[in-house]
Amino acid sequence: MTNINDFNFAGLKALVRVDFNVPLDEKGNITDDTRIRGAVPTLKKILQDGGSLILMSHMGKPKGKINPKLSLGQIANAVASALARPVKFAPDCAKAQKAAADLQPGEVLLLENLRFYPEEEGKPVGIEKDNPAYDDAKKRMKQSQADFAKTLAEYADVYVNDAFGTAHRRHASTAVVADYFDDDHKMLGYLMEKEVEAIDNVLKNAQHPFTAIIGGSKVSSKLAVIKNLLDKVDNLIIGGGMGFTFIKAQGGHIGESLHEDDLMPEALAVMEAAKQKGVNLSLSVETVAANEFSNDAERQTVDIFNIPDGWEGMDAGQRSLDNWKKIILSSKTILWNGPVGVFEFENFAHGTGEIAKYVAEATKNGAYSLIGGGDSVAAVNKFGLADQVSYVSTGGGAMLEAIEGKTLPGVAAIKH
Ligand code: AMP
């Protein structure tokens, strides 16, 4: 595989898939530019070598139609200031041949939102799956998607994918386009390299004891993750809302706590599988319960198996935290996904903050820690501990799919 660090971009045009899907307010102002800043190391390397940049991204979900509110033109100035140079804008991403051909070394061209074309995502438009003509429409769309990807590929000499957030999608710009470059002319950007390395550090090269902390609201959304991890970890901590399904399945009284009745058999199967595989499954033993789902609710700490009627478990109790602290501090590899309480409410954020502290402390003692997937990332940021863990992933869905053991098409297209 070609490595970006060893590649010299001098005199070459680089087509770079970035993730510039930044949040905007109603006036089109960027409210968080993390994603733009995240791409800068890759973009600077190419420019400093004497290459030129053709930047492509999606923004939001325009569903194959032009939508001015989701135009990447709105962020061209922000990209220009991040790169400290002018940025040209191509208002039609599939008709940028001339603009691309005219690019000089050191220049930057930003393409309009790729998802204004349905070919980017490659889903047939205006036809439902149960329609007998769907398969034909899908075949036709696959061909148009390949043509669209070829159009993009022809703008440049080399392809770089630095958009980890969309690496789990087989879209024109994230995977199909790579078919039009030989192995010496396609590579991962720095951000992607770091994400892939972080995943490998926990899934392939983990030091033991390896502990996974899985929290969040629903068992259903994390079942595949849990199943894959059972073959890899020594300790599995299950906390947060999803823990109550495991407690109820064992005959516990969980009051009004969040749970999924239909997943109780799965929860018991996970417990049995953990036993068979010698995994130490650590569930909550005590919870801080509330008499309503609000920050100002009344609170009481109760045994997890005896939550009173009318009360719901909202945060991890101290006895749970004490157990988890011991496990986390004795770990050499830690993977954390999902909060162990309703951390958005100040009064129920304590447990999640403590977990963040334990993970930071274990990291200081030499453990490798990866925080991945939406809300746990928000949690370490909230407690100001993001720079005290080994790696914080930027791609929620992509990270979860990787932890499930799935191959990410965006990575596979380059690293095969
Ligand atoms: P997820 O997206 O599955 O990682 O879930 C994150 C959400 O789980 C956050 O919004 C938390 O507020 C929520 N959550 C965590 N613990 C609980 C709980 N005990 N009861 C209800 N929601 C919870």
Strand content: 15-25%
Task: Characterize the quaternary organization of these chains.
Answer: single chain
The CATH topology name of the largest domain reads Rossmann fold
Inertia-based shape: elongated
Total domain count: 2
End-to-end Cα distance: 8 Å
What can you see in these coordinates?
- It is a single chain.
- This protein is of the alpha/beta class and 416 residues long.
- The protein has 2 domains: 4-188, Rossmann fold, CATH 3.40.50; 197-404, Rossmann fold.
- The protein has 14 helices and 17 strands.
- The chain has helices at 34-49, 76-83, 97-102, 118-121, 134-153, 190-203, 223-230, 243-249, 264-277, 318-329, 350-364, 374-382, 396-403, 409-412; strands spanning 13-17, 52-56, 88-90, 108-111, 158-161, 186-188, 210-214, 235-238, 253-254, 280-283, 286-290, 299-303, 306-307, 312-316, 333-337, 368-371, 391-392.
- The mean pLDDT is 95.
- The structure holds adenosine monophosphate.
- The site of adenosine monophosphate has 17 residues, from strand 14 and helix 12.
Topology of helices and strands:
Blueprint: E1 13-17, H1 34-49, E2 52-56, H2 76-83, E3 88-90, H3 97-102, E4 108-111, H4 118-121, H5 134-153, E5 158-161, E6 186-188, H6 190-203, E7 210-214, H7 223-230, E8 235-238, H8 243-249, E9 253-254, H9 264-277, E10 280-283, E11 286-290, E12 299-303, E13 306-307, E14 312-316, H10 318-329, E15 333-337, H11 350-364, E16 368-371, H12 374-382, E17 391-392, H13 396-403, H14 409-412
Parallel strand pairs: 1-2, 1-5, 2-4, 3-4, 5-6, 7-8, 7-15, 8-10, 9-13, 15-16, 16-17
Antiparallel strand pairs: 11-12, 11-14
Helix pairs in contact: 1-2, 7-9, 8-9, 10-11
